[in-house]
Amino acid sequence: MTNEPDRISFDDLVSAIEAKLTAAGASSAVAKVLATNCATCERDGTLSHGVFRVAGYLDSLTRGWADGAAEANIDIVGPSYIRIDGRNGFAQPALAEAQPQIDQALSDTGVAVIALRNTHHFSALWPDLESFARDGRVAMGMIASGKLAVVPEGATRPVFSTNPFGFATPVADADPIVFDFSTSSMSHGDLQLLRAEGKEVPVGTGVDATGADTTDPNAILDGGGIRPIGGHKGALLSFMIETLAAGLTGGAFTFEIDAEAPEGAHTFRTGQLFIVIDPERGGNDAYLARVRGFVDMLRDAGMDRQPGDRRYANRAEAAERGIPITDTIRSLFD
Ligand SMILES: NC(=O)c1ccc[n+]([C@@H]2O[C@H](COP(=O)([O-])OP(=O)(O)OC[C@H]3O[C@@H](n4cnc5c(N)ncnc54)[C@H](O)[C@@H]3O)[C@@H](O)[C@H]2O)c1
Ligand SMILES: O=C(O)C[C@H](O)C(=O)O
């Protein structure tokens, strides 16, 4: 790869983020996982969860709110059921630590239910889900995000977080299909980015402190709230995600953690749930080919953009030219 002057290579970006995280107290193992995750989001265009998030990680580490050197406790509570206590560390390193136990459950039973608690998740789900799919697994994940930000119709205050849900499947002779979205009209991260740019948001995105529709991100973020996707249906998805990612895992519900977090905290100690399935155990030998046929039909019907297409295109461009250097990336070198 030839790096253009206003671009940085993926490896250099990982190293720069890693250096910041270790300087703030993260162990080298944790820094590597988080930095790779963060640079992956930046490279593939998920800017709402890319380098923009490094400041929040550093804040949590330096004030001792999250433990950057935590080593997870991993309990096998059933042949397919893995419970992880992240011990106030970050979720992705805890998930990475449990990889041998996850592989064992998949090999023994074809299914792994991975319940994480006492863990901060401050990023996108798709990098971990894509990695499962590249190993031939179907995977889904969900997060109790911890920032009380979402006001469903009828509620007079925020009761949910932006509660993302992600899904990934391998596809025969193609990149995996991976999608991952907040169950709110917009992620909190995107709203913060739009606020910083002084932009407005579409009507329906959120409400101000009086409960009235607003197009001003300031009004939504400061005392108002974000609307769920699809009215009551999005609210019910959030209900399910909080119930599974917090209730089932034993992690804190968003409504509990937000009250406990220190003023100005960016990351939140909550819970996450992943379900990973070996599709070959389903009795459909040709699963991958069947999904390929399904995706081909969708493209043929006019759905020519499939989830993941843009990320893969951004990734290919970054491999060729490097990742565009933003002011936020530049600040890593200050
Ligand atoms: N850690 C957390 O607590 C937290 C909370 C909220 C969101 N997030 C993350 O924020 C990220 C962005 O969330 P978002 O709600 O802004 O998602 P988004 O709107 O950017 O994208 C949603 C998904 O839809 C796909 N997609 C977008 N347009 C498409 C189209 N026209 N056709 C087909 N597919 C299309 C994308 O590939 C993506 O997978 C996610 O990765 C999510 O995990 C994290
Ligand atoms: O920003 C947060 O606090 C939660 C999440 O990452 C989001 O962008 O919605």
UniProtKB/TrEMBL annotation:
<dbReference type="Pfam" id="PF02615">
    <property type="entry name" value="Ldh_2"/>
</dbReference>
<keyword id="KW-0560">Oxidoreductase</keyword>
<dbReference type="GO" id="GO:0030060">
    <property type="term" value="F:L-malate dehydrogenase (NAD+) activity"/>
</dbReference>
<protein>
    <submittedName>
        <fullName>Malate dehydrogenase</fullName>
        <ecNumber>1.1.1.37</ecNumber>
    </submittedName>
</protein>
<dbReference type="InterPro" id="IPR043143">
    <property type="entry name" value="Mal/L-sulf/L-lact_DH-like_NADP"/>
</dbReference>
<comment type="similarity">
    <text>Belongs to the LDH2/MDH2 oxidoreductase family.</text>
</comment>
<dbReference type="InterPro" id="IPR043144">
    <property type="entry name" value="Mal/L-sulf/L-lact_DH-like_ah"/>
</dbReference>
<dbReference type="InterPro" id="IPR036111">
    <property type="entry name" value="Mal/L-sulfo/L-lacto_DH-like_sf"/>
</dbReference>
<dbReference type="InterPro" id="IPR003767">
    <property type="entry name" value="Malate/L-lactate_DH-like"/>
</dbReference>
